[in-house]
């Protein structure tokens, strides 16, 4: 039931057309504390019309409102406070959650529309560091939230497998590398060569010219350069996929920049045909004055392509292949201006999906306040962080529950889940300073806290006798349970809002609120008491378990049944 609509109708029934239904509905507020009711109407909006004080209006209206469907309705100052019937409300909410199960909160807003999500996108021949975590887990969570809202996401790991950096890497390998070392430890050695290149080119800038020439050979299909590039790509993907498997992240396509290398001519030709491509100092640009943006450089003076040249080809391919409802790019905030330019160019080209291109920016992840950088050699490997988190989770589980039968599996779920949740609980545009130990705490605003709350609910259910949840009385009148019940009611709206805002933190923060409300209830109430409310209390526990598990699922985090 839409309780705001119920309250709206109650107010309208005692008015004489002073306000419309939409106006009353819009004015309803959520009181700051439970003591002030569940919904409140500010009577001062009627003061000018009724020529009375807001306090008097509130008292007059309360005396006329039919209160039979509420616990009570009272005037407090200028507000009319509505207290919902707790038994009726809890019965409806708990019935909805238990009958719908994991589908609770599902909607069909997206109507099956395709949504390509450009995400993760590590560079070949470089390790996946903590710097790649954000795009990967934010993109993965957004994909899950989109499914919950009726869309069909297409997760595209748009690999950084092309560009001048490969000219640098090939030059570095030829000068300082050898095949045997790369075979033994491919990623670490390749990145060592790349870092050395940037150390050497400070004193030998001619290396940059050599690298540009080498990349030009790669673009032209020179046999030696292509062989090395393919080798670097193969060993990199093997390394990446081990980490994605740990994170529980999968992709629908790995079409990297190289895939579009032979598809750029079409975009360039469209720009020419529309008279959009103009010469500037020998280079080819698109003027974007009408968007208050600098010209977009499409081709360098030597004819070499850039990121944007390949991204135009990518957008054309996705538009033609998927006919997307939206096109999402989960890329760091530092690229915001670039994506404004890309969208503007695509709009000028008349690409059908350009209007619904969205850059999903996110802040930096730092360690001890320092930005991570492959070029400077300051890298923290994601694989090592995940292993450390799993080890720390093992120690904590050993201390708390040494007899747990599947400790290894749970430690993996808790350790990895802690890293993912620790990222996603932050609003994505915020910067994060990463501290591993803080993420693994079983108390506070952490993934393990939410997981433990779910496991606690499952433990209670295991201790209870078999119960027919579908037939159980779910009219729970206990005021101590009210915060938990109202939190459960919120979930479908949170699912919609997280999708609209592309903001997984809304789900994470909600799961923390629900877990806290449930733990508070558990601490002050005896659940397994044999009385006429036992079925209702256990229904609440079941509903909490369902919604916490689904909340974690939308974040890409597992929910163990025991910890």
UniProtKB/TrEMBL annotation:
GO biological process terms held by the UniProt record: arginyl-tRNA aminoacylation
Class of enzymatic activity (EC top level): ligase
Alphabetical list of Pfam families matching this protein: Arg_tRNA_synt_N (PF03485), DALR_1 (PF05746), tRNA-synt_1d (PF00750)
GO molecular function, one term: ATP binding
Location relative to the cell: Cytoplasm
Keyword Transmembrane helix in record: no
The organism of origin for this protein: Lentilactobacillus rapi
EC number of this enzyme: 6.1.1.19
Keywords: Aminoacyl-tRNA synthetase, ATP-binding, Cytoplasm, Ligase, Nucleotide-binding, Protein biosynthesis
Entry GO terms, CC: cytoplasm
Domain Arginyl tRNA synthetase N-terminal per the UniProt entry, residue ranges: 5-84
Residue interval(s) of motif 'HIGH' region: 122-132
Protein name: Arginine--tRNA ligase
Keyword Transmembrane helix assigned: no
């Amino acid at each position: 039931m839409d309780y705001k609509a119920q309250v709206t109708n109650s107010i309208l029934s005692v008015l004489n057309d002073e306000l419309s239904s939409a106006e009353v509905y819009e004015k309803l507020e959520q009181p700051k504390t439970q003591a002030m009711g569940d919904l409140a109407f500010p009577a001062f909006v009627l003061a000018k019309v009724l020529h009375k004080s807001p306090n008097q209006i509130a008292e007059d209206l309360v005396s006329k409102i039919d209160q039979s469907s509420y616990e009570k309705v009272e005037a407090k100052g200028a507000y009319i406070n509505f207290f919902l019937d707790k038994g009726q409300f809890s019965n409806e909410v708990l019935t909805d959650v238990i009958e719908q199960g994991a589908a609770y909160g599902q909607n069909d807003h997206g109507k099956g529309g395709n949504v390509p999500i450009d995400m993760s996108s590590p560079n070949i021949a470089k390790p996946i560091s903590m710097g790649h975590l954000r795009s990967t887990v934010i993109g993965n969570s957004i994909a899950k939230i989109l499914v919950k809202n009726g869309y069909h996401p297409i997760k595209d790991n748009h690999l950084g497998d092309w560009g001048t950096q490969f000219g640098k890497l090939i030059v570095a390998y030829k000068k300082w590398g050898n095949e045997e070392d790369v075979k033994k430890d491919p990623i670490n050695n390749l990145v060592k060569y790349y870092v050395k290149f940037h150390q050497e080119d400070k004193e030998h800038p001619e290396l940059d010219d050599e690298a540009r020439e080498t990349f030009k050979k790669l673009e032209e299909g020179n046999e030696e350069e292509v062989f090395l590039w393919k080798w670097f790509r193969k060993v990199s993907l093997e390394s990446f996929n081990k980490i994605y498997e740990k994170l529980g992240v999968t992709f629908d396509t790995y079409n990297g920049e190289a895939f579009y290398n032979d598809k750029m001519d079409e975009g360039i030709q469209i720009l020419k045909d529309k008279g959009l491509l103009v010469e500037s100092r020998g280079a080819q640009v698109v003027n974007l004055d009408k968007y208050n943006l600098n010209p977009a450089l499409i081709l360098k003076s030597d004819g070499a392509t850039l990121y944007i040249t390949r991204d135009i080809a990518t957008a054309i391919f996705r538009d033609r292949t998927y006919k997307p409802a939206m096109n999402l790019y989960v890329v760091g905030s530092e690229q915001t201006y670039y994506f404004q330019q890309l969208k503007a160019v695509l709009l000028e080209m008349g690409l059908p999906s350009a209007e619904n291109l969205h850059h999903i920016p996110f802040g930096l992840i730092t360690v001890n306040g320092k930005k991570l950088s492959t070029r400077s050699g300051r890298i923290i490997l994601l694989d090592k962080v995940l292993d450390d988190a799993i080890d720390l989770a093992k120690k904590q589980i050993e201390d708390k529950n040494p007899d747990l039968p599947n400790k290894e599996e749970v430690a993996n779920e808790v350790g990895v889940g802690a890293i993912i949740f620790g990222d996603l609980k932050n609003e994505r545009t915020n910067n994060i300073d990463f501290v591993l130990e803080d993420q693994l705490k079983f108390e506070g605003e952490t993934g393990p806290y939410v997981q433990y709350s779910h496991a606690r609910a499952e433990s209670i259910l295991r201790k209870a006798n078999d119960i027919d949840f579908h037939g159980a009385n779910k009219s729970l009148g206990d005021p101590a349970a009210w915060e938990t019940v109202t939190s459960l009611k919120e979930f479908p709206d949170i699912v919609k809002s997280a999708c609209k805002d592309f903001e997984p933190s809304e789900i994470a923060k909600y799961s923390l609120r629900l877990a806290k409300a449930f733990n508070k209830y558990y601490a002050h109430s005896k659940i397994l008491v044999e009385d006429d409310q036992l079925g209702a209390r256990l229904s609440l526990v079941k509903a909490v378990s369902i919604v916490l598990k689904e909340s974690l699922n939308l974040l890409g985090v597992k929910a163990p049944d025991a910890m």
